[in-house]
Amino acid sequence: MTSVKRQPAPVSQQAEDEYWGGSSFKRFNFDEDDNNEDSIEKIQFDGSTATPLSQKYESTRNHATSYGHGERSYVADTPLSSTPPNRAMSARSHRPNMPKKQQFPPSPATLPAANHEPVKSNNSQHSMSITEAVAVHDKKPITSATSLAQLETEINSLRRQLTQAKRDRAAAPSVSDTLKRVMVGDPYVLELYKSKDEKAKLLDSAINRHDGNAVVAATLFMRDTLKRDIFSKELMSRPVAVDHYCAYLREAGEIDELHETLSALGRTEEAAMLKYKQCLASTATTTPEIRASGLKDCIKYYFDADIRLANDTSAIFEQISMMERQSAVEDGDSAAEKTGQVMVFKSHPRKESIIHKPVIDTLFYCCYYHWGEAEGLLSSPTSIRNQHKISEKQFMFTAVAALCRMRRWRDIENLLTVPRTLFRSSRLQAVIGFDRVVDVLSKNLAPGDALAKYCAEIETSDKRLEMAVKLKCFKVAIDTFVYQRDRQQLMLYLDQIPQANQHMRQYCSNQLRSQEIKWKN
Amino acid sequence: MESFPDVRILKAQAREQFTILLGNFYGKKDLVIDPSLMTVLDRITGLQFLKEKGVDKVYKLEHKEILGGGNKRVYIVRPSVKAMRHIAAHIHSDRRAEKMRAYKIFMVPRCLHVCESILEQEGVFGPNLIEDLNIGFIPLDQDIISLENPALLNSVFMEGDFTWLHTVAHSIVGLQTTFGTIPNVYGQGHAAKIVESLTNTLTSELGEKKSPLQHQIGHLVVLDRDVDYVTPLCSQVTYEGLLDDIFEIKCGVVDFGPEVTKTEKSVKTMLNSEDSLFSEIRDRHFTNVFPYLSARAKEIQANYDKSHSMELKDLKTFVSSELKGLKQEHRSLTLHIGASEVIMKHKTKGSLRRGDLQDILHIEHSLLEGSDFRECVNYIEECIHRQYDMLLTLRLLCLLSCTTSGLLPKDYNNLKHKFLHSYGFEHMLTFFNLKKAGLLTEAQTGKDTSIESNLNKLADSRTVGSAVSYVTSSLAALQKKDWFRTVSKKLSLIPKPGTEYNLKKPSDMAYVFGGAYTPLTCRLVEQAIQRQGWGGLEDVLRHLPGSNFEKLEARSAKAGKSASSGEQASKVALVYFIGGVTYSEVAALRFLAKQKGYRILIATTAIINGNRMLSSFVETVR
Fold first, then answer.
1. Which key words are in the record (chain B) (predicted)?
2. What is the pLDDT of residue B398?
3. Taking CA atoms, what residue in A is nearest to B354?
4. Among A267-271, B261-265, B276-280, where is mean pLDDT lowest?
5. Touching A: B residues 565-604, CB under 8 Å
């Protein structure tokens, strides 16, 4: 106990010796220190006196290790290592009989003026306790040589402890301890892991624990405290850390760093996709020209290099050419719309711009407004079809829908007609099948006669019947029942034809009565 | 059954924690809530509760300033970088305006290192700024508890980021503290394994003692979503599943629009077992819903009619006792009939954006059976040609890929090319994401001589030798040839073609997909509980992604003593789906429980369906 309390003694030994040596109270301080600390502490520690110094020191030290960097500086501020000069001065000038402990403030927080005041007032009033104490000490015998030697060794041991304490303060807690704190959400500090091995160990243990948060923490700590190439090397050898690091970079929006990491890993496709996305995102509100040039750069730097990305590269080229087409068509059409001369824009006003729309949307638009234009024009559907290698089926679906909306029945018929050849007359044919044609027409709200016309063309009779019944193409349905020679079903079907449609009911009855048909039932 | 764990206690726990945190921040305060937490908080608190706790105004956290508000503000957010940046921006703008305000940030469920460092970098970090608000499970019903964290799917199975698995493990630890340590644990999947080990670490480090309570849950089955992507990709045909697919159920609440209510207003309805009518129909195959509803309607009508012929005295008791219940049932009946009608419309009439449900179901069944491959590809092509709803197209594409272990390069490139034309070139990013998650892949051709595979090898050897990250290893696992066929044959997931299935009286779990397919996950659960482990299933599990594990209770002589209560618990199982569960799987597990006399409690990170699952992988830059 005593040894700990005397800790201050060796701290500023030099200065003290000088001072005490010159004074008449040569041996006084030690004894005083021993016996009268209670009263001094009362003066000193405003309120919180009871705690022994050793504990105080211990607790601040703990704080330092657990709270880390920020608080480390405040430990250094404590006069353990060196007494602030102004305080030493004031003590000396005002209170020559004041014991040394005076200069050893309890806690750094109370360092300023608040601490001085009670001391000063004591000084002026010559408080009883101190005068009494002095009187007691004066009677004490002179310390023997042996006890001096004892004190000497004690001083030495204290010095050792102090250096040890100083060292401990900066030593890192064990890795598992820190990781536990990370995991359960206690405060922790990583800055104490100075050596590369310690850092690596921290990361490895975090990975072994599968604690994603700790993996990210350890990785970022390594990034901040290691040289770039060393960090990369350590990172690359730990795939789990790479995944977490990349996830972090993506979330934090550190795109360039992410790209670099992915490239270094040989994940070129991912790296290229990242750049492509970045390009799209950054040009979302700009003109198509700026985006196009961005995309061209993208191809040049990130896609061209890898032959495995050939398909994506050609897709981006298509995207660029589509954008150029869109902006030309858009400009032309909006100008034409403004003049008010073009009928089609008056009768069917344009709803939204086609800029940045998919290819098929654009094709639909061009089929809608620019059907039949010569291939040389950018707005011609045929030109889009050829340039983007749009399949026959795709073209049919889109064109039929667009023309149906425009109510251009003649054009639909032409589209679905195979011209007359040497061997056959012209006929209707649909590569998508007439059931699909009818479906598209009905979903685009085509009138009954248009539906009936193509419904009759549906290739298989079952499908034809199904569609005809569903879409209420009565004549087609009746004809199909007749074709299937299914009298029973036709009789049932008669009930489904509304009374209002007398014409069709008549037709149905006629068929039922017909002698020419060989019914199967 | 009284032995079944009462999960309502979890809600009370979350509520209490929230109360304490709010109480510690004295005085009147405003809340700023992460949009993704809105429904969750709604579910556990409600406005009245917040008002009692001194909450003044409630805002949504967005990328814009909040004008006004008092001098105390609480942010309730997920620990994301984006949320931190928004908060920092708010604080900065307050500082610029020299507005003095006290802040608190409640992180759900805990603060992450990156969040602290972002706040530090932005210069807004302060003491006591951050609190962890550990909202774990939200009980959606008496047998479903959910973390309501759909983002986990993307982060774990695409990015290979384990951060959220900590939350999963933490939730298991919490459950074990409340309901006793679960003696038997079985798991399948990469993430499940990690969760198991994290659970053990956390239990010891949080100093949770082995609970003195007699355990109420006998088995825990942990499954990764990527073990079975097929099930969520199928269209759902149970009533609740259809409601989720068509109206979208959020945190157990559905919003019926005017088309259902047939009035101007839309109605928000809680869907749980407290609604007796709903609990009767929720798990039925849709074909069995309408007959039941009409029978019920007649019954109610009869009850109303009864009142006409009543004596005055009887009428009084009728009004006071039965009428209220009848009215409530009437209301619920009207809603569900309205909803069924809308579903019927979807089923038989496609629209411009969607094919008929019947056609889609037909294609799905062919894909599951592995028949008529070309017809399926052609149908998907048609979906693309006609620009049907993108998620629908994508769902079928992914199903095609998952059931055939990846598309042939020819088909892949052809379909991708057309897809990009129809839906926009930017979706090459979506394709990349799906590839990374293992949902839509290109099969490796057997011929190693092809230029492409050589190039791949070259590229692989350039990367650091053994560095196989989670992402690439999960890809490799899925590329095992025809694994879905093998597994479905071994576990008999698909009935033999031509067998009639009686949907009215289903005999197994396959009814949830019209008798065409038993969900793989549910079959695994059945087997694990039945066999008390994975024993004998090795040659099946071998084909599934990730590894498997089991931890069985040490059967000592002591076991005989507590046999009576242990007996009961051994019939109770907790099934944890990492990455989400569908209502179809829930229905199948309920069926299983009823059939075998188990009690099955379903825990999940979120309730998903095909669309929600895929939309988390879709890139939306335009």
1. Protein transport, Transport
2. 95
3. A443
4. B261-265
5. none
Total of domains in chain B = 4
Q: How confident is the model at residue B380 (pLDDT cuts 50, 70, 90)?
A: very high
pLDDT digits (tens, 9 = 90+) for B561-604: 444 455 677 889 999 999 999 999 999 999 999 999 999 999 99
Do B361 and B481 reside in the same domain of the chain? Answer: yes
Token pair for A275: 């750049």
Q: How far apart are CA B535 and CA B526, in angstroms?
A: 13
Vertex B289: Cα angle to B285 and B293 (nearest 5)? 165
Q: How many CA atoms lie within 13 A of B621 on its CB side?
A: 20
Q: Using the predicted structure, report yes or no on whether residue B25 has a pLDDT greater than 80.
A: yes
Q: Whole-angstrom Cα distance, residue B363 to residue B516?
A: 12
Contact B352 A180 (CB under 8 A): no
DSSP string computed for B440-463: S-BPPPS-TTSHHHHHHHHHHHHS
Which of the pair, B338 or B314, is modelled with greater confidence?
B338
Q: Across the beta sheet with B184-188, what order do the strands follow?
A: B138-141, B144-146, B599-604, B572-578, B219-224, B184-188, B548-551
CB A251 to CB B470 under 8 A? no
B198–A209 CB contact, under 8 Å: yes
Residue B496 lies in a domain: no
Q: Output the pLDDT for position B111.
A: 92
For residue A210, give the nearest of B197, B351, B452 by CB distance.
B197
Please report the DSSP string for B592-617 in residue order.
HHHHHT-EEEEEES-B--HHHHHHTT
pLDDT band at B89 (very low <50, low <70, confident <90, very high): very high
Q: Is residue B621 part of a domain?
A: no
What tokens were used for B498? Answer: 């031509």
Between strands B599-604 and B144-146, the pairing is parallel
Task: Judge: B385–A307 Cβ closer than 8 Å, yes or no.
Answer: no
Mean pLDDT over A509-519 rounds to 86
B198 touches chain A (CB under 8 A): yes
Residues 61-100 of B with CB under 8 A from A: 80-82
Question: Do B191 and B267 share a structural domain?
Answer: no
Tokens coding A413? 């018929």
Supply the CATH number for residue B461's domain: 1.25.40.850
CB contact under 8 A, A252 and B162: no
State the pLDDT at residue B519: 95
Asked if residue B259 and residue B341 are part of one domain, the reply reads yes
* Of residues B413, B422, B455, nearest to A360 (C-beta): B422
B26 touching A (Cβ < 8 Å): no
B131 and B148 in a single domain? The answer is no
pLDDT at B32: 93
Asked if B165 has any chain A CB less than 8 Å from its own CB, the reply is: yes
Question: For residue B500, is it within any domain?
Answer: no
Q: What residue type is B166 in one-letter code?
A: H
Residues making up chain A, counted from first to last? 521
**Span B381-414, pLDDT tens digits:** 999 999 999 999 999 999 999 998 889 999 999 9
Determine the structural domain holding residue B393 and report its residue range: 357-488
Show residues of chain A in contact with B197, CB under 8 Å. 209-210
Q: Which residue, chain included where needed, has tokens 């099934």? A: B575
Average pLDDT over residues A228-241: 93
Q: Do residue B536 and residue B599 come from a single domain? A: yes
Are both B419 and B320 inside the same structural domain?
no
Give the whole-number percent of chain B exceeding pLDDT 70.
90
ipTM entry: 0.89
- Specify whether B378 is located in the same domain as B482: yes
Peptide bond into B291 cis (omega under 30): no
Q: What SS3 class is residue B56?
A: strand
